[in-house]
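[recover] target loaded
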């Protein structure tokens, strides 16, 4: 068995452990890209979806294009990972979704053995006029916590475009996580940014989600769900700027503290420059809901099991 095959199979196993379907990575009918450290192991186009990948000294550059009017039948599968204990991976990516197109991306980032791993994602995303893009990213980390993850995305939505993203990191230690997402939302376009993270031990979590409602009747939601345990420190910045008539934006943050040594904070930033725009926010910070815990304990669960059920429900 070649080293390439061994690496592909190892990545596939990590991909499966993160919740992905490994069969999708070798299905010729499904568009996909697999990158192990700085090596492209697989790149597959399908009609209407084009993937251009280039290996660089520090990672990979990738450009993924969905042709105008194309409705992609199967989700596009992306897999990025570093299998050794140490290493740096920088992914510079560009996503272009043409006018009237519709696509769903499933991304899995796997670092199961990380002791000193750095993963940087720099993405530019353009959603065309009346196009629809859903992007779901799930992380699978080891328990050592020796990983730094810095995802950045600059998203542009043309008139009537729709974009929904979900970032999820609940398996293993988060390590040092710094999310920075920023969306420029055009006329009648909608954008939802959703981050869910379970922090443990000495994890440091920073989440910044920014909505710039620049088009008439644009819509935006910045949502975050964070659970901090151990000595984890978390900070969430939810930002919305209403620059156009009829624009509506909402910032929704829930952070749960589990244990006496964790620390969390939330900073909403709302700015209206057009008096016909409207922005709202809500934040809930504190311990797990006691009533929910008591209800579960009355049904036979221990207190620890009950808290875990509530936490999992928040991050589901």
């Amino acid at each position: 068995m070649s080293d390439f095959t061994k690496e592909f199979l190892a990545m596939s196993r990590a991909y499966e452990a993160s919740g992905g379907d490994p069969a999708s990575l070798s299905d010729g009918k499904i568009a996909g890209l697999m990158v192990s450290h700085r090596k492209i192991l697989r790149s597959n186009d399908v009609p209407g979806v084009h993937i251009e990948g280039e290996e660089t000294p520090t990672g990979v550059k990738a450009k993924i294009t969905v042709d105008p009017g194309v409705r992609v039948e199967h989700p596009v599968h992306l897999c990025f990972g570093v299998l050794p204990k140490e290493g740096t991976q920088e992914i510079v990516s560009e996503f272009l979704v043409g006018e009237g197109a519709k696509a769903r991306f499933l991304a899995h980032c796997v670092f199961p053995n990380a002791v000193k791993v750095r993963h940087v994602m720099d993405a530019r995303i353009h959603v065309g006029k009346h196009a629809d893009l859903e992007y779901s990213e799930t992380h699978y980390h080891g328990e050592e916590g020796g990983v730094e993850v810095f995802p950045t995305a600059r998203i542009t939505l043309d008139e009537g475009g729709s974009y929904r993203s979900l970032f999820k990191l609940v398996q293993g230690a988060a390590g040092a996580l710094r999310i920075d997402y920023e969306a420029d939302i055009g006329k009648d376009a909608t954008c939802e940014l959703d981050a869910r993270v379970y922090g443990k031990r000495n994890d440091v979590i920073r989440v910044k989600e920014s909505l710039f409602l620049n088009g008439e009747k644009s819509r935006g939601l910045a949502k975050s769900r964070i659970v901090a345990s151990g000595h984890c420190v978390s900070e969430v910045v939810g930002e919305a700027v209403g620059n156009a008539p009829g624009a509506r934006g909402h910032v929704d943050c829930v952070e749960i503290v589990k244990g006496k040594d964790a620390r969390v904070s939330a900073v909403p930033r709302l700015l209206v420059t057009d008096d016909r725009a409207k922005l709202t926010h809500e934040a809930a910070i504190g311990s797990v809901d006691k009533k929910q815990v008591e209800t579960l304990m009355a049904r036979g669960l221990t207190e620890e099991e009950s808290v875990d059920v509530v936490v999992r429900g928040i991050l589901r």
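[recover] notes: The helical segments are 3-17, 290-297, 303-315.
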